[in-house]
Design brief:
two-stranded antiparallel ribbon
């Protein structure tokens, strides 16, 4: 009787045990990508696609300035936060979380048997190959971003984003093994001060992930910045500080070599838009500053940003 009640309210014991075991593997985007890479490795050999992913740790960190710089090479089109609040890349990357040892079972995949010969077989779970899974997801990006860039006369495309984490980078690396990643960070206080001038009304994804408060802004900054620092080497990424760029300490020749492009240095001297209105920066009061510091201080310290 007790078992029947437990099964009715909690589910079968065997299913719950298997779920606990699966959770111990810490499923996530990166874990799923590792599983897929082992089963269906992305081979960079002969793959000419090398999109550029320019990602910053949140808003108001200089990503648009670098976007303009990269597009000074006439061969390059960098899309600016395309369909930003939809969370397209995030949603596709999240589908990687299900992949784990033992799933999908090997006998789920179509083995080439003619369909008419399968009518007498168990085909409730009949999957295309993992290579087809990867090709299908990549085809979406090629159609949405590469083809329009080529129509505009550019042979190289990329995306500028302020919402994507290091885990999303690993997903994009699996799709495009020759992709290049430029990861941008700025002191969180200065980024927040600039963000405040725009009304603090933007979303990570709409409608469930607003970023209206210093705590939300700081948590978003910390998540992205921590991942950038931790995974930059594994991704072969270029980690850049906004402060170094504007102070002229960042080597643009290194950027050219890493991306295989040639940017126009004069773009850096042309300011387009500003969070300063009437010569004044937005005021951050003591409470906002404390909340932001509490959310970001430890990660900021690893980047050499004092509070």
């Amino acid at each position: 009787m007790l078992r029947a009640l437990s099964d009715a309210f909690r589910g079968p014991a065997q299913a719950r045990a298997a779920h606990r075991q699966a959770l111990r593997l810490e499923p996530g985007v990166e874990a799923g990508v590792r599983q897929l890479q082992a089963l269906c490795p992305a081979d960079p050999t002969g793959d000419e696609a090398a999109p550029i992913f320019l990602l910053s740790a949140g808003w108001r960190s200089g990503s648009t300035m670098l976007q303009r710089l990269l597009m000074s090479d006439p061969r390059v089109l960098i899309w600016g936060e395309p369909y930003d609040e939809c969370g397209l890349v995030q949603a596709l990357a999240d589908s990687m979380r299900a992949f784990r040892p033992g799933w999908p079972p090997q006998d789920y995949f179509h083995d080439g048997t003619p369909p008419q010969q399968l009518t007498g077989e168990w085909i409730a779970n009949l999957f295309p190959s993992l290579a087809d899974w990867r090709a299908g997801q990549r085809a979406l990006f090629d159609t949405m971003f590469d083809l329009p860039a080529r129509r505009a006369g550019c042979v190289r495309w990329g995306i500028k984003e302020v919402r994507l984490t290091a885990a999303h980078c690993h997903y994009l690396r699996w799709l495009y093994p020759n992709a290049r990643f430029v990861l941008l960070v700025r002191h969180p206080l200065e980024a927040y001060r600039s963000y405040s001038r725009y009304g603090r009304s933007w979303y990570d994804t709409f409608p469930d992930r607003p970023v209206f408060t210093p705590t939300q802004f700081g948590a978003h900054w910390r998540l992205l910045a921590e991942g950038f620092v931790r995974e930059a080497s594994a991704l072969g990424a270029l980690l850049v500080k906004y402060e170094d760029v504007v102070a002229g300490r960042f080597d643009l020749d290194e950027l050219d070599r890493y991306l295989g492009i040639c940017v126009d240095r004069k773009v850096m001297s042309r300011k387009v838009g500003s969070s300063e209105r009437g010569g004044e920066m937005a005021h951050v009061n003591a409470l906002e500053r404390w909340l932001l510091q509490r959310a970001t201080a430890q990660t900021a310290a690893t980047l050499g940003y004092p509070w």
